[in-house]
Structure formats: structure tokens, C-alpha cells
Give the backbone structure.
Amino acid sequence: MKKIKKSDLNKLLSQWQQKYSVFAPSNHGVVKMTAWDGKDTTFLDWYRNTVVPPKNNFLPGMEKMFDIKKDAGYKLEVTADDTKQLIFGVRPCDARALALIDVNFKDGYEDTYYLNRRKNGLLVGLGCTSPCASCFCTSLNIHPAESQDVDVMFNDIGEELLIAEVTDKGKELLAASSGLSDATAADEAKAKEAKEATFKKVTRKINTGEIKERLMPSFENEEYWKNVAAKCVSCGICTFLCPTCYCFDINDEQSKGEAARFRNWDCCSFAVYTKMPMENPREEKWRRVRQKVNHKYNFFPMIYEQIACTGCGRCIRQCPVNWDITQVLSTLPEKAKA
Ligand code: SF4
Ligand code: SF4
């Protein structure tokens, strides 16, 4: 293992910036991963987690897929994004979320736009030290300060950061980096203690045992879901900002003989999401809320044997009406619990 003084982190990020587009947490009104400005590492003092998850770096809120040009016939020019991104400060929950999105975007049809960015990207994790009251990652078997879903993992050990390589890509990155010192056994012991302390700070818990089996019997319980959905205003924030949500819509824009196809995040909280010419199976709000919860804790696990929630807590922190998925999961009807 390696280590670096926090005061030297800017030198390391600058080195990496020679080869990669480096992204780091910034707060210009909303905390998100933005292109690093080449000097500021003060996020080490205030950063807990981003509001906009790092999925935005790989599945942007809006992206152009291709241009359609009129020549003798029509020609498609595909927009390829080969940017080599290095995202510094990814939290373990968000790294797991990307691994979950990978599963879906590799299954059957391969989404080359997303997968190409993932292939060219490096995730540098930073262990949490101060989880939010809304975080419940430990209930989803995610350690707030450890991750196998990143390429390199950093942990705060006071004046310094302990650095561990996780993947071959991470190993290569560190081998090509200068200014790192070897960590001592005392440093590793300090990191272990800090990680254990952080783990204990995640006090919000849910019971995920047999969650599919507990959710399924309540599926047709209209009264329960109406009650659960009552205060939701269908704003879509919880799904847009969820690091594991990956739904998108596609639109064509046309102007003067040219056109382009774009895709943008979409959201199952919106009434028009499932609107079809003849019907809309989820016009009523309770059906949409039921879908959101079941997709994460019932349908996704049914297909991929993994829960599509990382307990990052964003949907709780950002909801304007304090809708809380952990409350919903803890108050399933008795009949369903049986
Ligand atoms: S953020 Fe809250 S109000 Fe908005 S769609 Fe989600 S649960 Fe409903
Ligand atoms: S459902 Fe909520 S807690 Fe779970 S990953 Fe999405 S935003 Fe995070």
C-alpha cells in the first residue's frame, strides 16, 4: 500500500491530469463530479457525497447519439466519446451502483455509449468518514470505507491518505505515479480503525432478508400503495438522482435538412413514462411508486440476483416531501411479512 500527504494531493491529481480528464467533487450550488480545476482539493474538508451521482459521467443526463446528414442519401455520424475520465472521490455505494448499471447495459443488447465510457474510465474511490443520517449502505452489504468496485481506493488517515490498488488498471495508474510513499503497518492499522469507526456511524438499517418474497404478496395491495404514494409529487428527483437508475428517452431534433438523435434520462415517476397510444398502465401515481420500489427490490433481483439499491440515501435526502424508501420497506403489510 502507498500513501500521500493530503497537502500533496493536488500534485498527484495534476500528474493524472496530464493523461486523463480528472473529475473531482465540486460545489457550485449542487455537489457533483466536475472537471478538476487543477488546484482545489478543499473538498477533502467538506465532501460527504455528491448530489448528482457519478453515473452522470458515464450515462450523461443528455447526450447526442448521432447526427443524420443529408448528402446524396442520408448519412449517420455516430458521436463517439473516447474521453479518458478519472473520477476522484467516488464513494463505495456509487462505485457499486455503476457495477449494477454495467450488469444491465451488458445484458443482451450492449449499450456502447455507456460501456465505452466505462472502458475508458478510472474510478478512484475515497472512503467515507462522515456518512449522512439517510445512508443505509451497510444493509446492502456495502462498506462505507471499502470497495472492490473502484480501481484505486483512498482512505483518510489524518494528515495523509492511504492508497490501495484494487484492479490492474489501478495498479498501472499507481505504478506510473510519482510522489507516493510506502505505507507502514501503523498506517494500515490506523486505516482499519478509521474504517471500523465509519462503519458504525451508518445507523440507519433495513432488513433485506427475503425482500422479494416479502414484497411480492403486497403487489396487488392497492390500499397500501396508495397510502405509501400519497405524499409523492411525482417530481422525479429520486430517480434522476438515484445512482442505479438508468432509464432514458430518445428524441430526434431536426433543423434545415439535418437532424440529430439525443437521449436523456427518463423517470418512471412521470405519468407519461409508460404512455402508449391506446393505454397507460401506470397513469395512477401509486402504480408508479410501486414500480420504483419493486424494480429495485423485487424485479431487478429476480433477473440479476442483486438488489438495485446501494443505500446511498439520495432519494431520502433530496425528496421535497420526505418520502423515505426505508420506511416503505419497513412497513410492508403484515400479510406480506408473513
Ligand atoms: S423525490 Fe419524492 S416527491 Fe419526487 S418523485 Fe421521488 S418520492 Fe415523489
Ligand atoms: S433507491 Fe435511493 S438509496 Fe437506493 S440507490 Fe437509489 S437513491 Fe440511493
